[in-house]
TrEMBL record:
It holds the Pfam family FAA_hydrolase. Residues 63-274 form the Fumarylacetoacetase-like C-terminal domain. This is Fumarylacetoacetate hydrolase family protein. It comes from Brevibacterium yomogidense. InterPro entries: FAH (IPR051121), Fumarylacetoacetase-like_C (IPR011234), Fumarylacetoacetase_C_sf (IPR036663). Belongs to the FAH family. The keyword Hydrolase applies. It comes from the Bacteria. The lineage of its organism: Bacteria, Bacillati, Actinomycetota, Actinomycetes, Micrococcales. Keywords: Hydrolase, Metal-binding. GO terms for biological process: small molecule metabolic process.
Length: 277
């Protein structure tokens, strides 16, 4: 679906089969699709709510996460600002849509609000100055982690601890790279209602409130550095890191009954409701 304000256009129908019906086909023809989408007539769609939307990239070949990529987050973890990108993966079975439910896997589940970059063309060994052309667009993500699994001996299991079902919600849409006024200066926040908020004495508690301007490595630098090793494919997802305020630094863990909303200025909001595992 192509979202136009509060309506959704059936892309396969409106394009006479030129794009779709498989959503992943759009990313294989991203530049062509973008040109067509900009010319799509507003009002040609049907009303749609976030609850009706699934993840906008349902079958990415690869999902990357970048650790310690915000200065204030590295500072709260008492770690030096990295000189090179810190990379992990989230397995595809953890993907979820913009209004989803996730089971709390243990008493050490953490939250991270993230800007997600969606890859729009195949890329290998691209320079930073070329990397912007690799970006299809941006989305909102939540990097949910079971810190107990992530840190258990004998060695950290970042990817496994971050890949329980529903631990990679993304949405509500992919916003094309030219839509945010300045992707390097977007407000990014994460707020809770439920037991965690109540423990802070609030009905709604803001856990994270930062700016993408605090990133150490820009999306272009991340794409360039990743591509020196791997080949990036259309539809790949890159979780670009999180600002300060994560639960591990605060001594807080997500509880059943919590509802977490992550918002990025100019892109949208996604919500995850946590239930008992």
């Amino acid at each position: 679906m192509l979202l136009l304000e509060d309506t959704a256009v059936d892309v396969a129908e409106q394009s006479d089969g030129r794009f779709g019906p498989d959503l992943m086909d759009v990313y294989e023809k991203w530049e062509e699709f973008s040109a067509w989408a900009k010319a799509a007539a507003p009002g040609a769609g049907r009303p749609v709510s976030a609850a009706q939307l699934g993840t906008p990239v349902p079958r990415p070949r690869q999902i990357f996460g970048i650790g310690l990529n915000y200065r204030d987050h590295a500072d709260e973890a008492n770690l030096a600002h990295p000189e090179n990108i810190v990379v992990f993966t989230k397995f595809a079975s953890s993907l979820a849509g913009p209004e989803s439910t996730a089971a709390v896997s243990s008493d050490s589940v953490d939250y991270e609000a993230e800007l997600v970059v969606v890859v729009g063309r195949e890329a290998h060994r691209v320079g930073v100055d070329e990397a912007a052309d690799v970006i299809a667009g941006y989305s909102v993500g939540q990097d949910i982690s079971d810190r107990g699994v992530q840190m258990r001996p004998p060695a950290p299991q970042f990817s496994l601890g971050k890949s329980f079902p529903g631990y990679a919600p993304v949405g509500p849409a992919v916003v094309t790279r030219d839509e945010p006024a300045d992707p390097s200066a977007l407000r990014i926040s994460c707020a809770f209602t439920g037991p965690t908020a109540q423990a802070q004495g609030a009905d709604v508690w803001t856990a994270q409130d930062g700016s993408t301007g605090d990133m150490i490595f820009s999306p272009e630098r991340i794409i360039s550095d990743l591509s020196q090793v791997v080949t990036l494919y259309p539809g790949d997802l890159i979780f670009t890191g999180t600002p300060a305020g994560v639960g591990m630094a605060r001594g807080i863990a997500v509880q059943p009954g919590d509802v977490m909303t992550t918002t990025i200025e100019g892109i949208g909001s996604i919500t995850t409701e946590f239930v008992a595992g």
